[in-house]
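Render Urea ABC transporter ATP-binding protein UrtD in 3D.
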Amino acid sequence: MIVDKSGSPLTATENIKPDTRHGVILYVEDVSVSFDGFKALNDLNLYINDGELRCLIGANGAGKTTLMDVITGKTRPDKGKVNFGQQIDLLKLDESEIAKAGIGRKFQKPTVFEALSVFENIELSLAGDKGILTSLFHKLSGEQRDRIGEILQTIGLMKEAYYPAGRLSHGQKQWLEIGMLLAAEPRVLLVDEPVAGMTGQETERTAELLTSLAGKHSVIVVEHDMAFVRSIARKVTVLHQGSVLAEGSMSEIQANPEVIKVYLGEDGGSAEKTVGAQA
Ligand SMILES: Nc1ncnc2c1ncn2[C@@H]1O[C@H](COP(=O)(O)OP(=O)(O)O)[C@@H](O)[C@H]1O
Ligand SMILES: [Mg+2]
């Protein structure tokens, strides 16, 4: 059961506030997940600080997506602990409760409403559970307009506010979807391969966007593009066979003999991709 500071039970997940007085917003401890006896996650430990921007890298099959599935409640671990702040046990919440509690996830494929304008897409996500009808037939309050404007500014789509979302470029759609997630004011944002398929310029702007979100939000980014990771990362976690192999700055990671050995030993191609061509 989830309780507030005074010990009374909290039922409405919107009212759940993670206790981050120790600086940590996400605790993943000794988490294992098996699929037919194969350990996709193996005693994994990960701590994300409140407001940090963390990059998660690792070869295909290392467990990155499974880890995101566990944090968002899509997959239940066989064992371990997953807490949001010190006190909220995420393993006791379902997927939608976790989202409402403040953990947003962006999938690779954008799911914007193509026929609606950029503005309306954000308006809809602002309405949340209140739904499409309430949102489209009620006048927006000044406060809501301001909030949408603020989000458009953040994602750099002010000029495109009244374009149908279907006319946006691939990169712009990705930003719109990040904007739609921001409407819920998540404390943690999980982003899986945000720059896949983007142009160089879009990739640069995405780096700026994600960097600007850190601080107010904690952002976890899974990405293969090492130049991109280098451009945004303060701390990088390397997953290997379902566990954390190394953690540190990008230069520490690239100089780490185990990281080099594992990727070089496994497959030269993924070594290049994962540790960077400069190694
Ligand atoms: N639903 C599933 N059923 C069986 N095996 C799975 C399932 N999901 C993931 N796996 C396996 O778990 C391992 C980790 O997968 P994944 O988390 O997708 O890795 P990554 O995202 O790092 O590429 C892989 O070997 C994958 O084949
Ligand atoms: Mg994956």
